[in-house]
Write a structure and sequence with these properties.
Blueprint (H helix, E strand, L loop, with lengths): L1 H8 L11 H14 L4 E7 L2 E9 L2 E9 L3 H11 L11 E10 L4 E7 L1
Parallel strand pairs: 3-4
Antiparallel strand pairs: 1-2, 2-3, 4-5
Amino acid sequence: MEIIKIYMQSIKFDLITKMTEYYFEFAFANILNMLGVSCEIEVHSAVGNVDAIVKLQKNVFVIEAKLDKPVEEALKQIEEKKYYVPYLEKGCNIFKLGVVFGKEERNVVGWKAE
């Protein structure tokens, strides 16, 4: 997350004045993809769209992002909608990750993994 924060801090101010949650998801995924980490955003499932999925070897990170909301809300949504279920039978380690972006800070302001 510290690397993500550094990259997001370098985005020009005038490019990020009209930020939405989707903007942050897009920037987050692009940064990870530029670093060589496969990240898909808005991954469809039977119950909705998970904000991002990152696959690293035998690890799957199910990521829900929020804008100026508690990180617990993101983790609760992952659990309630069971976004991780499609990966249960694939022999992967599954990590649930809540990420909070701050509109004023224009960056990651909190995160928590389970």
